[in-house]
Amino acid sequence: MRQQIVFWCLCVMMFPVWAADGKDVFLSKSGEDFSTYESRARLFLSAHKEWINPQNSANELAAVMPFELRPDPQQCGTASTIGVLLSHGLSDSPFSVRDAALALQKACYQVRVILLPGHGTRSADLLQVNEEDWRTAFRDAADTFQKEVDVFYVGGFSTGGALAAEYAWHHPDAVSGVLLFSPLFKINSGIDWLSPLLSYFKDWLDNYPTDDFAKYASIPVPAIASAYRLAKEARNTLQDNPQPIPVFMALSEDDQTVDASVSESVFHEAMISPKSQMLLYSRLQGNANTDRVRIYNTNWPEQRILGLSHMSIHGDPNNPYYGANGSYRICGWYLDEPVKYQACRSDTNNWFGEKSAALSEKSDHAGRISWNPLFESLMKQVSNFIQATAYLE
Asked: What pLDDT score was predicted for residue 392?
């Protein structure tokens, strides 16, 4: 009897591994050129995406597609090519880094944005993948892209930032610098370490249908566990081996998704290049500058903004979907409170920021900000950072 109990316990623990066999998700292929990768993605997403509005399927598909942007030859000339590979974060899509990619293209850089496995279709597809699939996708894209350009940068948002930093630390000779927006080096939770254990027994803590065609509303527990492991392993990789690879990091001190204090520690301890820069947005600290750190105060009552959120750091205020006057408002805090959810979506005089008691005092249905009023300044500093670290001959 004891042997039978042990056997069934092992079966329960191994179920997520068995369930991953034969997964039907979009995966990268080593050595594949980017145009073929895009074509495969288009076919897969067209067949598998859960449409929010089938009448708007063309725009919804475009939002989640991987893409490449090339600099305008008339504006930029035929100088050496600087390539930037970007990745989105967990539950997001390539749309989440489109504003940054467009700004980099305008600054004369060639940009590629990948689609992480399990994304762009339906949230349940995250049950079929793990951090190794995301690593493989980033590595395949980076290994191919860095051979096609003269100077190569990697970057990403949130989980994508962890992937980019980890890749750079493993390939310091191939990477000239790293661009990080709200990077994930630790989930902002004191019990995030429980997620791998919980993932053996529970797929979802909540599972809301999304009304946002560029992002999932809910994340399954196994995907959270994968993000936890990736963040921990990337953090350890960097802190155990500080390197002089130039890094540009932008993050919000008020971030409720990632632990910004841990990201700051990683910057100071592991990112030791004198050319590395950190932009810290804070609703409590005043503006300040040091050699490697700039702090911007984000208490802007005249704009009804109190702090920047995890996703807003690299968001253009002019984005027609997520921008200041965009058609979509991030109100997921109220998915289990329909009245507040609708008020958040419709209040034209609402407040925006990152979740906090101070923000709730401003409005009991405040929205999560999805744009950065200082976006133009941010991207100018990113471009200056690349120019200062590219070492073109």
From this structure: 57
